[in-house]
């Protein structure tokens, strides 16, 4: 029986898929960290779980359920390290990005589960995982989304808080990771729509139009994106 050879299009797709999902690590300096240690990792993981299960107090049912769920998450991350593809990133180590992808899958499944719950149920689930959050409240030392018709330098400056620094640093690091101007600006704008959608949950998401457009998108996010891409260019990083 003759073996069907891949066509030019399918071969190109196969090569592209491998280059993105199974990128080979070049310039390996420490061979130990790039050799398979599947049995060792599984053995250490099982020993850690067995040890923790026998030394803990089992009289609290809620604590037992929480510990079991955390253990499931832990083993899912271990399986992610062993089974998931390398992905397009290889530094500092492919295992790091497998772990990141594993957490992303867990987060996606959590969001799918929350999609079928109401707001009160989701809050109760969060309180069950961390009871201290039930008494948590945001200290609103300042008001957001007020005097939006007054556009002065003093008013703009008063809205420069710790969140402005978080916007700048966050988008500078995102630029170092993504390295694509169009994608960065698209995500930046979409995040502002996300803040508008969840303004009823977090008071600091209630912003004036000039706060969201000028301070966040153009100034903090835009400046962070520019600085991050400039650093990429200075270090001659791959695009």
From TrEMBL:
Entry annotated with the keyword Membrane: yes
Pathway(s) per entry: Phospholipid metabolism; phosphatidylserine biosynthesis; Lipid metabolism
The EC number(s) this enzyme carries: 2.7.8.29
GO (cellular component) term, any one: endoplasmic reticulum membrane
Transmembrane segments: 37-55, 67-84, 96-116, 209-229
Catalysed reaction, written as an equation: a 1,2-diacyl-sn-glycero-3-phosphoethanolamine + L-serine = a 1,2-diacyl-sn-glycero-3-phospho-L-serine + ethanolamine
Entry superkingdom: Eukaryota
Annotated compartments: Endoplasmic reticulum membrane
Membrane topology term: Multi-pass membrane protein
One annotated GO biological process: phosphatidylserine biosynthetic process
GO MF annotations, alphabetized: L-serine-phosphatidylethanolamine phosphatidyltransferase activity
Entry annotated with the keyword Transmembrane: yes
Keyword entries, A-Z: Endoplasmic reticulum, Lipid biosynthesis, Lipid metabolism, Membrane, Phospholipid biosynthesis, Phospholipid metabolism, Transferase, Transmembrane, Transmembrane helix
Function description: Catalyzes a base-exchange reaction in which the polar head group of phosphatidylethanolamine (PE) is replaced by L-serine.
Protein family according to the UniProt entry: Belongs to the phosphatidyl serine synthase family.
UniProt-recorded name of the protein: Phosphatidylserine synthase
Native source organism of the sequence: Homalodisca liturata
């Amino acid at each position: 029986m003759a073996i069907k050879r891949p066509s030019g299009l399918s071969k190109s797709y196969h090569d592209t898929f491998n280059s993105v999902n199974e990128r080979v690590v070049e310039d390996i300096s420490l061979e130990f960290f790039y050799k398979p240690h599947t049995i060792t990792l599984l053995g250490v993981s099982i020993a850690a779980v067995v040890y923790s299960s026998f030394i803990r107090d089992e009289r609290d049912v809620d604590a037992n359920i929480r510990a079991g769920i955390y253990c499931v998450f832990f083993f899912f991350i271990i399986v992610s390290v062993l089974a998931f593809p390398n992905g397009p990133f290889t530094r500092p180590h492919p295992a790091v990005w497998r772990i990141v992808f594993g957490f992303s899958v867990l987060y996606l499944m959590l969001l799918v589960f929350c999609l079928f719950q109401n707001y009160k149920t989701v809050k109760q689930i969060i309180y069950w995982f961390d009871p201290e959050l039930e008494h948590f409240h945001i200290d609103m030392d300042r008001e957001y989304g007020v005097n939006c018709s007054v556009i002065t330098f003093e008013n703009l400056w008063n809205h420069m808080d710790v969140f402005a620094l978080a916007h700048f640093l966050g988008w500078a690091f995102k630029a170092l990771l993504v390295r694509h101007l169009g994608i960065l600006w698209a995500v930046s704008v979409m995040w502002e729509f996300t803040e508008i959608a969840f303004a009823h949950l977090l008071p600091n998401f209630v912003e004036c139009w000039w706060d969201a457009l000028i301070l966040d998108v153009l100034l903090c996010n835009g400046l962070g994106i520019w600085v991050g891409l400039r650093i990429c260019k200075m270090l001659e990083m791959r695009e």
